[in-house]
Write a structure and sequence with these properties.
Largest sheet: 6 strands, antiparallel
Number of strands: 13
Radius of gyration: 22 Å
Strand content: 5-15%
Strand order of the largest sheet: 8-9-10-11-13-12
Structural class: alpha+beta
Shape: globular
Number of helices: 18
Length: about 450
């Protein structure tokens, strides 16, 4: 640790080596890897029958393609300028990976909510992926380009100004900073119309009902007097439908033991809470876009009686897409990599967030992390988001990403590098729309690969 003046000097000195305007450049490298090959490589470790569904979801639009193309963009980001100042990166900061959820204190907070790719790396990588998602989302909704550029610039400016604010704050104040719902309304309600504000308030009210009880009512049924998960192939398939009858009891017992084994990664009080539940059913679940094909399970546990449910999501963790370019993780277990990165970047993390490894149905050892399936979760409704909301949402995401990076990186050096003017914001806007064009080209290339039969689709 060095004094603040020297840290600020380090940031300003980086402007000479990496001018802020240089971040606006994107030229396709001549040796760039074929995006189809990247997807083919990822498919090798995924559940084979789900790979076509992943491609189908990605090709719904250029924006959904971008959501699933974190590995493609990681290779591209590695060729762009960076200051060498590292933070704990999320690795996949597109705008749909931000949202609301209830903290352990039962307060609805806004934060990043997906950390499958988290790894230490240059702070610029996360910010460039975020702002590009706003450019692509604006194009996907056919918004006026000026509005799209304003949304990108607002996200970048919010990141820059928030980082400068955090640079002047005490360490503990930065650590405790969070964006709860009331703070969100206080800060941005004047920037939206009355109709949009009512819409936000309805979504907030809806989030409070999206609990374990809501998931329990939606995803389960009574069969012969016992509670069971409802099968809905291929999106949700009970373990009993995936295995021969003679293996079901054996695997269920194995996974029941594993549920409580993973509890060793929880705090002692939370471990005690987990031990008060028993597992009664398990199902494989398809989640997201980019994650489709990784092994993901829903575990149904019951507490004092059948009206006391707990639904846990057990999700496979593979190597981060940043690893070939940012270096290997310090954690040998990728579930731990995800959890430790999440705890470092989030203002509040799930009560049951933990990790472990076990063998899958094919006998292959894999890494997993665990969290509650639903816990007051609220996601942006991109398909119906009014144009006026997009720049405001950009500010919210920019603030949140700056807070996450300030917890793990040198916030003083980053703030000094960014400065008080809009030079960097203009560069981010140029990069976002240049890379949006690259994403469109990749989308067409993958669409052609599906049409030619090179990639399977559902």
């Amino acid at each position: 640790m060095i004094d603040p003046a020297k840290r600020a000097a380090r940031g300003r000195a980086a402007r000479t080596l990496v001018p802020r305007s240089s971040h606006g450049e994107w030229v396709t490298p001549p040796d760039r890897r074929d995006p189809v090959s990247v997807l083919e490589e990822q498919a090798k470790t995924r559940v084979p029958e789900l790979v076509p569904l992943r491609h189908q979801r990605m090709l719904a639009s250029p924006f959904t393609f971008y959501r699933g193309a974190a590995a493609i963009m990681a290779g591209d980001l590695a060729t762009t300028p960076n200051t060498g100042i590292r933070v704990q990166c999320c690795g996949d900061t597109h705008l749909a990976n931000f949202g609301g959820f209830e903290s352990p204190e039962r307060t609805l907070v806004f934060d990043i909510n997906d950390f499958d790719e988290t790894l230490p790396g240059p702070w610029e990588w996360d910010l460039k992926r975020l702002v590009t998602s706003f450019a692509i989302a604006a194009q996907d909704r056919e918004f006026d380009e000026r509005l799209g550029r304003r949304a990108v610039a607002r996200a970048s400016r919010s990141y820059r100004e928030t980082m400068r604010t955090f640079a002047d704050m005490r360490n503990l104040d930065v650590w405790y900073a969070r964006l709860d719902v009331q703070g969100m309304l206080d800060r941005w309600s004047n920037a939206v119309g009355a109709a949009e504000l009512r819409r936000v308030e309805r979504n907030i009210a809806k989030a409070h009902t999206k609990s374990n009880l809501k998931a329990f009512a939606k995803l389960t049924e009574q069969v012969d007097g016992e509670v069971r998960i409802i099968s809905d192939p291929p999106l949700l398939v009970r373990l009993h439908d995936l295995l021969p009858a003679d293996r079901v009891d054996e695997v269920t017992a194995q996974l029941s033991g594993w549920i409580h084994s993973y509890g060793r990664t929880l705090q002692q009080d939370r471990r005690r809470l987990l031990e008060s539940y028993r597992i009664v059913d398990l199902a494989r679940k398809v989640v997201g876009v980019g994650s489709v094909g990784t092994r993901c399970w829903v575990a149904l546990l019951l507490g004092r009686d059948d009206a006391d449910p707990l639904l846990l999501q057990i999700k496979e963790a593979e190597a981060s897409v940043l690893e070939p370019y940012a270096g290997k993780s310090e954690y040998a277990q990728h579930g731990q990599r995800v959890v430790e990165g999440q705890r470092l970047m989030q203002a509040a993390s799930d009560t049951f967030l933990g990790w472990d490894k076990t063998r899958d149905l094919e006998g292959v050892e894999r890494h997993f992390y665990v969290r509650q399936l639903w816990d007051g979760k609220i996601s942006p409704e991109l398909a119906t988001m009014p144009p006026s909301i997009l720049p405001v949402y950009g500010e919210m995401c920019g603030w949140t990403l700056a807070r996450a990076h300030a917890r793990s990186g040198d916030r003083i050096a980053i703030a000094a590098y960014l400065g008080s003017g809009d030079t960097f914001d203009r560069a981010m806007t140029n990069f976002a729309f240049a890379y949006a064009d690259q994403n469109a080209r990749d989308y067409r290339a993958v669409t052609e690969a599906v049409r030619d039969g090179r990639l399977p689709t559902a």
